[in-house]
Amino acid sequence: MLLPSTINDQLCAATPDAVTTQLVMDTYLAGHLVSVSRERDAEVDFKLMDEVEDVWILAFRKPRASQRRLLGRFLAKDVFVGLGLYARGSLYGGNYTIRGQEVIDEWQRIFGDQVPVSSTRLDDCFGHVYRVEGDEDDDEDDEE
Amino acid sequence: MKTTTKTTKSKRVTISPEREYDRALFRSELVSLFWAVIMERKRAPDGFTLKKLAALLSVDKAQVSRWFNELPNWEANTVADIASALDVNLELIAKDRKTGRIFSPAGARPTVTTSTHIELKSFKVRNHAAPSRQWAGATKSDSLKTYEIAA
Prior knowledge:
The complex is a heterodimer.
Chain A: E1 2-4, H1 5-12, H2 18-29, E2 34-37, E3 46-48, E4 56-60, E5 68-76, E6 79-87, H3 95-111, H4 122-125, E7 130-132, H5 136-142
Parallel strand pairs in A: 2-3, 2-7
Antiparallel strand pairs in A: 3-4, 4-5, 5-6
Chain B: E1 4-7, E2 12-15, H1 17-42, H2 50-57, H3 61-67, H4 76-85, E3 94-95, E4 102-104, E5 107-109, E6 123-126, E7 144-147
Antiparallel strand pairs in B: 1-2, 3-4, 4-5, 6-7
């Protein structure tokens, strides 16, 4: 995972929420199971934005009252580049799209013409253990 | 420093952030380990499903699904049952956090060390060489380093 220093400092800040933040980061960094979805309303770790191209959201869901979202793109398989960290509450009302576009702009500023990993194939983004929310096999099971 | 307090029948137990972190990461490791097996089996032609796992364990499929959506606090017997249901043997080791020395149920093993080298400019590169413990009251970890390349 690659993070600009400013975002890294925010995530490493010694706050009361630091344990839960650290757990989200370390779970991903260790290659442990993360949940993934392309669905807008899915409550997962990694969610693909549908408003902007190839921008993913990593969710910090705990504590519920101060949730945060890290927006970014994949530079390579398992190399997530976080480019924008926001309080969840600040992203309502169309701000997801605005922030998503800012992430793309920041990406182009830093990486130029470097194309991010296409989000059409999850295996190209996630090389470790992941679970797809809404997995067809599991849905099939649930129907019974 | 924030701590979690849980009330049991007879006493209140205060859990330190470090312990809370270690517990959650261990649960994550167990869940992830089993899901790695399931993920591979699901891709096989016969298509292993959570429903099959639930049937093998004689538990409700919804419960099995919940296990992999959160971080369950499994009993040792449940861990053994899942391993049996998936037809895998678990191999346990313990690694000394200070020396790296590895212990197995059969005794100590020789230490094996690895290293990685990443060159990037103006970015923090986060590896999982060692758990970062940077919450309030804890010391900063060496797992977080800044790397730079020549322009």
